[in-house]
Amino acid sequence: MVKEQIVIIFNENKKRYGYRRITKELHNNDICVNHKTVRKLMKQLGLVCQVRAKRKYSSYKGEVGEVAPNLLERHFKTNQPNRKWVTDVTEFKVNDQKLYLSPILDLFNGEVVSYNLSRHPNFKQITDMLEGAFQKLPNKVDNLILHSDQGWQYQMKSYQNLLKAKGITQSMSRKATCLDNAVAENFFGLLKTELFYLEKFDSIDQLEKAIVDYIDYYNNRRIKLKLNGLSPVQYRIQTVGAA
């Protein structure tokens, strides 16, 4: 019974869950078993969570505009949604074609608030992402920080004016200090480990659809141990309601 459920959970999540997350999912399904037993059974079953190395894309091109101070200062926790957001851009390559993902994540629960996929890392990608995020906010917000690295997009006056018009305070990592934006970096690593490196993609179109599906899975179904075994959306709804 337990072995069958472990295999089901492992396969349903496309080999993305290790023994700790599978243990939590078993508990969510009212199957009481400790993590040591799950780890032992997974070893017997030959179930291994897949991991691959990651390559980082950088949009830094020097100081091409105004650099904002690092207001976030690696304080990655908040007890309310829409108080601390982080953003970044990452690159994928399939058959000599490239795809760029630009998301915004809420540090309250790690939820992807908005994102944009583009064949080119241009400024329209950033504004489209912001437009999607702004639709989920009131006309004017207070005490919301949006943190990024020092990529050229975030130094543009047009970007900074969009944030100011919405009442959002801009924050930037220090130069060449990726740990200042660790949550965004970790999300990219997770997505590539659990999706991009696990599957073979024949085209950019195929990859784009897979990323859309993965983000829906990540937001709504992928449980997090630090969110009490809930997905980001489940945690938000349980904690503060659907708004």
UniProtKB/TrEMBL annotation:
Annotated GO biological process: DNA integration
One Pfam family, short name: rve_2
PROSITE patterns documented for this protein: INTEGRASE
Residue ranges occupied by any Integrase catalytic domain in the UniProt entry: 77-240
InterPro entries per the UniProt record, alphabetical: HTH-like_dom, Integrase_cat-core, RNaseH-like_sf, RNaseH_sf, Transpos_IS3, Transposase_IS3/IS150/IS904
Signal peptide (UniProt feature, chain positions): none
GO molecular-function term, one example from the UniProt record: nucleic acid binding
Function as written in the Swiss-Prot or TrEMBL entry: Involved in the transposition of the insertion sequence.
Protein name per the record: Integrase catalytic domain-containing protein
Annotated organism of origin: Faecalibacterium prausnitzii
